[in-house]
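Colleagues,

For the teaching module next term, I've prepared a clean inverse folding example: a structure given as tokens, and then the sequence designed for it. I'd like students to try predicting residues themselves before seeing the answer, so please don't circulate the second half yet.
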């Protein structure tokens, strides 16, 4: 069964949320993605979280735009860590989503990521770090990823500037 469950409010969120899946693939973490809407299918939220817990999912990544209720509503139905990804909206460019996710009331925690593709990729990375606390192979992959990032920066640290 998948270690990470990626949920989104609509299929149109996939271009953003696939960045989480790509990161998880790169780090050797199994994942599954589904569409579950906080507004159109609210009855599926508790059953989806119960199923995730029964199937040993370790982390839930939830992407949502607009009112962005999905991450918070999912967190209300589970003890699993939920990472919220604000998906950019046409009207407010994702600021509405960010504020909806980050302003959770005391007692219902959602880890809030950056708006858009970077936030989704970092949600995948953070989920891998969480999985890595109990999976040495994933922990090694995360450490290797970080080392590669470091080497890339060092290799490109010399700038030749024309003044």
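(Answer key — instructors only)
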């Amino acid at each position: 069964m998948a270690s990470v469950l990626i949920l989104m409010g609509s299929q149109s969120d996939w271009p953003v949320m696939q960045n989480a899946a790509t990161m998880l693939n790169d780090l050797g973490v199994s994942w599954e993605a589904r569409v579950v809407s906080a507004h159109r299918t609210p009855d599926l939220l508790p059953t989806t979280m119960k199923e995730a817990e029964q199937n040993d999912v370790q982390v839930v990544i939830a992407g949502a735009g607009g009112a962005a209720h999905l991450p918070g509503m999912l967190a209300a139905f589970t003890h699993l860590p939920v990472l919220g990804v604000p998906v950019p909206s046409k009207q407010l460019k994702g600021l509405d989503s960010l504020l909806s996710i980050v302003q959770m009331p005391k007692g219902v925690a959602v880890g809030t990521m950056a708006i858009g593709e970077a936030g989704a990729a970092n949600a995948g990375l953070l989920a891998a770090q969480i999985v890595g606390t109990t999976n040495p192979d994933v922990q090694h992959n995360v450490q290797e990823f970080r080392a590669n990032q470091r080497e890339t920066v060092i290799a490109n640290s010399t700038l030749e500037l024309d003044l």
